[in-house]
Amino acid sequence: MHPGLVPVPLLATSLPDAITFAVSAVIVIAGAIGVVVARNPVHSALMLVMTLFGVAVLFVEQRADFLAAVQVIVYAGAIVVLFLFVIMLLGVDRREAVSADPLPWQRPLALVLSFCALGSVLALGFSGAWSTGAASVTGALPHRAGDTAALGKVVFTTYLLPFEVTAALLVIAVVAAVLLVRVPQLREQGGQAGAERGGAAGLEGDPEAVSDPGVDGDPQGLGERDREVVPS
Amino acid sequence: MDNYLPIFVLLVLGFLFAALSFTASAILAPRRPSVAKAAPYECGIVPRNEPPERFPVRFYLVAMIFIVFDIEIVFLYPWAVEFRALGTFGLVEILVFAAAVVIAFLYLLSNGALEWGPARRSAHWSSARTTASTVLHISPAPSDPRLSQASGGEAPEHETPAEELAEGSSEAPARAHPHEAA
Amino acid sequence: MSLFFLSALVLPKIAWSAILPELILLAAPLVLLAVSALSARRLPTGVYAGGMGAAGLASLGASVWLWTQVTPHGAGTAVDGAIAVDGFSVLVMILVSSVVVLAALIGEGYLRREGIGGPEYYVLAMFSAAGAMLMASADDLVLIFLGLEIMSIALYVLAGLDARRQGSGEAAMKYFLLGAFSSAIFLYGIALVYGATGSTNLPQIADFLAHNVASSDGLLLAGMALLLVGFFFKIAAVPFHMWTPDVYQGSPTPVTGFMAAVAKAGGFAALLRVFFASFGLLRDDWQPVIWLVAVVTLLVGAVLALVQRDVKRMLAYSSINHAGFILVGLEAATTRGIAASLYYLFVYGFMVVGTFAVVTVIARRGDEAHDLGSYRGLAQRQPFLAAMLALLLLAQAGVPLTTGFLAKLYIISAAVEAHSYALAVIAMVSAAIAAFFYLRVVVLMYAGAKSGVGLPAPLAATGAGEGAGSGELSPVAAYGPGAASAAELEGDRPEASRPDGAGGGEGHGEPDAAGVPATIALAIALCAGFTLLFGIWAQPVVELARQATLLFH
Fold first, then answer.
1. Chain B interface, mutation test: which of C4, C30, C41, C146, most B Cβ atoms within 10 Å?
2. Least confident of A57-66, A128-137, B100-109
């Protein structure tokens, strides 16, 4: 029933395929590294777009055109826009004081450990037998209609329940957004917004600032204790 | 290999278009920068100080509406492709999904996600601020006290790029320079 | 073209009744949202609480009905193999439905006290419960992941419900960041398992492993390890427990109780099913990992709870300790061990919800008074609360005549039966350590009023115990941190609190005059009544858990 359990050769494809794979892999990984090392959060978000585009190219190469389109529309288009929203809300000119680390050995240790974890996962992956390997990389889809039709078929039959409960996830996300946005109003009800309101109202001609008094670049009040925020 | 030819052609075309646009604008475009043009958004209103926040967090609700329906559309597409095969069964399924999303949308609406009326803002709108008072900084009346306040160090970092530009360019109208005017 | 597909596509037969409890808990929050969106004025929180309570009861009824269906007909699958309908999943559904009813009662009292309006608490709690149920009944890794996400994302938001306290936002942020990370790791694990076995469906994975011998199983091992990490995070097992104290402490107290019960139920249910049912053949590979994690979880949870001054932090570490016990049942990797774990999970849900309900009331408006000092002399101020808390804490400590004792007993005997003697001994030692900090709170409540000592240091409390008005407790106080004190208490404490528990078990509660909201009092009494009733009359629940694993799919 299953194809023989043999390790898949790394380059079982034609040369252009291999080149495309290599180029997009470099783009993906460079983007991912860029997300982590960029100091400016906006640059991080843009690096993420680069990674997502690279992944989309990889999807195309595996003939998963629909997934590639979704990758660009939903992830690069919508999710990163949402990221940028949050970055802008919190203020691009604030950045974490990375030098002020209470546990200085923590960062290098995390780096070493994560490389160990990654290395062991990769080593196990290469040493292991892929039962799905060859078929999914180079094999054609079971019918000619393309992956959108195939996806439509499984999503609405085999994975019907997962599809339906995805709606619950969307609703949760909406409720969560409303709840978190309502934070300032709750503060007003609690009678603690007076000081903030006074401070904000003092700024002449800034209607936005006044309409949501609790939001001063740090809507959930998370910044004060966990990290130092310094203006650049 | 044939699969890659159109992609390659497209790549070259894209590169060429970008290169052409840059070169063309570099060669053809007239450059007469002024302080007003260099100001952010070139809209005539100079920011005097950093706003204490970027924009209201309520924008986030609009973003949520966008995301939710974006994802719903992603699911609608394969359903549409397989519409005939799935028949009533698929229609009911997608309707259940859409109903949940619509309820979320109604909930967002009831929480004012799309309410941008002036009612909430006007309470704290300062009547002292008029069109004249904000546009002053670009073409100031010499006697205006606001100007000296603005250039007197309230937000000096925002003037810096304008200063550099004005000094670097011979065409910049001198009267617009805040320091000179003061 | 379309003709071709018409013939190719076979629409699945879906027995929707098999997931009726989930459907109820997924539909009810949508109804609440629609009601709140369409109603012209703000509805009182009681309306939503009523809706959630009704949904919980309906879901409980549906679960019980499912149990009656499963018992004679045996286990099966539904919704095209995505859902397992077996005693195991149905028992977890019964637990989660009950917790939903209790959370509605507690939430109503809490939200009214804090002046937080809106349907959000109820909506998110019901979604979260539905996610936990999906995790318990899912027969497919994809569905398990979705259930995990529905459960967790709702919990992240619930943790940040109380916007006025900074700790609440901090808890939400911490839980969210670490939880999202662990979800990603879990997803990576699913991908690797799929790569190794060619399926995400649990029976198909088991079938593949039974019929194929992999030339090298590195990929599968990596996948299993990553899945374990994801599960360990959700159940707060030790190397992945760092979030627990902060999140338990920062979250609104009713949410903490709900989180402790539901997240553990969902996480453990899926963990037990995946590793016992699907990877059962590979138990030689995962058993040592579980053994090690169980040991450190047991010890770290018990020892770190000793030094906490904040009751919620203490209970957080105690929940870590409980997770260790449940892991011991999995480590045994026998049907008996799974039954013991399931029983533990079931009774722990009621204990922890009741405990945090009492903590909610004691914390008073603002939800801030969680220092041990707030519990000093509670027995005189709030005899009902003190008795209930004493009963629930002693049950958590594993004092006989409570469900907690039976749970620990079955776990340890399952471990002994599986020849995990070292683990059984370590579990007993950790139970003895844990008994100490539970008893410290009990002693403080009953004897602390007259002690002039500022710190709730154990020795100070013990010394002060002599002069306490509640004479029956002086032996406890004099006993101190002895390992055997739990056993010594056998005939003492539970009987002292039995009248209250039995009275509450009837369902009336005791809305005493001293500021306990009636709904919370009812919930506390139900939890305490369950703990005591089925601690004494042990047979039904034990039998339920045993049958559930016999009907294991």
1. C30
2. A128-137
Q: Is A120 within 8 Å of C83 when comparing Cβ atoms?
A: no
Comparing CA positions, the residue from B33, B156, C28, C79 lying closest to residue A168 is C28
Contacts of C81 in chain A (CB under 8 A): 158
Residues spanned by the domain of C224:
165-253+265-550
Find, among C467, C435, C464, C440, the residue nearest to C452 by Cα. Answer: C464
Closest Cα in chain C, distance from residue A205 (Å): 28
Out of B61, B82, B103, name the one closest to residue A177 (CB): B61
C398 domain-assigned = yes
Q: Band the pLDDT of C387: cuts 50, 70, 90.
A: very high
Residue C379 lies in a domain: yes
- Give per-residue pLDDT as tens, C343-352: 999 999 999 9
Average pLDDT over residues C473-486: 37
Overall domain count for chain C: 1
Contact residues, chain A, for B104 at CB < 8 Å: 170-171, 174-175
Q: What is the pLDDT of residues C405-457, one digit of tens each?
A: 999 999 999 999 998 899 999 999 999 999 999 999 999 998 865 554 444 44
Write out chain A residues lying below 8 Å of C143, CB-based.
161-162, 165
A74 contacts chain B (CB < 8 A): yes
Q: Do C160 and A173 lie within an 8 Å CB cutoff?
A: no
More confident call, A132 vs B74: B74
Q: CB of A166 within 8 Å of any CB in chain C?
A: yes
For residue C76, what is the enclosing H or E element? strand C76-78
Domain A1-94+131-140 coded CATH 3.30.420.10: no
Q: Are the beta carbons of A78 and B4 separated by less than 8 Å?
A: no
Confidence grade of residue C165 (pLDDT, cut at 50, 70, 90):
confident
* pLDDT tens digits for range C439-451: 999 999 988 655 5
- Cα A146 from Cα A68, distance rounded (Å): 13
Give long-range contacts, CB 8 A cutoff, 24+ apart: C187-191. Answer: C187/C145, C187/C230, C188/A121, C188/C226, C189/C222, C189/C223, C189/C224, C189/C225, C189/C226, C189/C227, C189/C228, C189/C229, C189/C230, C190/C141, C190/C142, C190/C145, C190/C223, C190/C227, C191/C223
Residue C408 lies inside a defined structural domain of this protein: yes
C-alpha triplet B116, B119, B121: angle, nearest 5°: 80
The pair of three-digit structure tokens given for residue A50, joined into one six-digit string: 């680069």
> Is A22 in contact with C231 (CB distance < 8 Å)?
no
Quote the tokens at residue C312. Answer: 């919620």
Q: Which of C355, C349, C329 shows the shortest CA–CA distance to C340? A: C329
Mark yes or no for CB contact B85/C34 under 8 Å.
no
Q: Model-level pTM?
A: 0.79
Distance in angstroms (rounded) separating the CA atoms of residues C267 and C144: 9
Asked if C10 is an interface residue toward chain B (Cβ–Cβ < 8 A), one would say no
In a domain, C81, yes or no: no
Q: Where are the domains of chain B?
A: 30-42+129-182, 59-112
- Please, which residues 14-33 of chain C have a Cβ atom closer than 8 Å to chain A? 14, 19, 26, 29-30, 33
Task: Say if A220 is an interface residue toward chain C (CB within 8 Å).
Answer: yes
Q: Is the pLDDT of residue C196 over 60?
A: yes
Q: Which of C511, C443, C172, C123 is nearest to A221 (CA)?
A: C172
Using a CB–CB cutoff of 8 Å, tell me whether C154 touches chain A: yes
- Residue C123 pLDDT grade (very low, low, confident, very high; cuts 50, 70, 90): very high
CB C282 within 8 A of CB C209: yes
Cα torsion for A55, A57, A60, A61, to the nearest 10°? -100
Alpha carbon of C143: minimum distance to chain A alpha carbons (Å): 6
Burial class (CB in 10 A: 0-12, 13-18, 19+), B89: middle
